[in-house]
Structures are given as C-alpha cells and as structure tokens.
Amino acid sequence: ALGKLLKQLVFPNCLWDISQTFGHSPGELLWIVLYVVGNLKEQYKDILKWDMDQLMLQLLKQFCEAIHEAGSPLVSVFGFIDGTDHRISRPLHNQRKYYSGQKRQHCLKYQGVVSLDGIIIHLAGPFLGPDHDLTIF
User: Fold this and answer.
1) Residue ranges of the domains in the chain?
2) Residues 67-77: pLDDT tens digits?
3) Global pTM exceeds 0.85
4) What is the per-residue burial (b if ≥16 Cβ within 10 Å, else e) of 48-64?
C-alpha cells in the first residue's frame, strides 16, 4: 500500500495509468491511497505540526523582509500558496461533488504553503473538485 501511495505521489497522472501497474481498479487505488495517507497522518500527528525549531519567528521575519524587498507591497508574507488538482476516475455516485468545470475532470484538490527556503510548511486536503482555491484558503 505504501508503494502504491509513493507511486501515486511521484507519478500524479490518472489513476488508470497506475492501475495497470498494480492490477487494481482506479477506485480501489484511490481508497488505498487515501487509507494510507489517513493512517500516516494519524500515526505521525505529533510531528506533523508547526515546527517551532525550523520556523522560528526570527526566520519568518527574514522571509517577510526578503519578499517585501523583492517588490511586494505587503510586509507580512512569509510563504506562497500553491494548489493542485489531482485527477480521479469518475465516481459512480455524487459525480457533481468531484467534477471541476474549470479543469473538465473529476478531481480532488490539495493546497500547500512553501517558504522561501523551499520547505513545504503546510499541506491541506483533499477538497472536492469544484471548490474554489479561495474557498479552500
């Protein structure tokens, strides 16, 4: 199951492509991936929090200053938000909940915040396909 999760994260294409490798249907692979992510999140919830050793107030202030000096009119920005739509196979039930009209596909959305040193400091999701990025934020 962990191998299937890692393959999905490294090769974020349609689950149908990966199903050929592992011999499961795309729906089964989706449930396996979500189950493993949920287990990892529950097992490591103590360390999957804001890391006060890495993200100290002094470092965040340096990030804010660097972004402001680069031309941003805002003085309190220390990271950048990025979202991604992860395509899923068409569900049998509640298809409209997962369909993104903008991308014209059924998908789940994830959102992350990256700091200036390239470290992902926050991840959130999955969210339903039609949810707007500002709604997720």
Assistant:
1) 1-46, 50-136
2) 899 998 888 88
3) no
4) eeeeeeebeeeebeebb
- 105 vs 91: CA distance, rounded Å: 11
Give yes or no for residue 7 having a pLDDT over 70. Answer: no
Q: DSSP of 36-69, one letter per residue?
A: HHHHHHHHTTTTSS--TTTS-HHHHHHHHHHHHH
Mean pLDDT in residue range 98-124? 81
91 closest CA partner among 128, 124, 136 = 128
Contact yes or no for 19/26 (Cβ under 8 A): yes
The separation between CA 82 and the C-alpha centre of its own chain, rounded to angstroms, equals 9
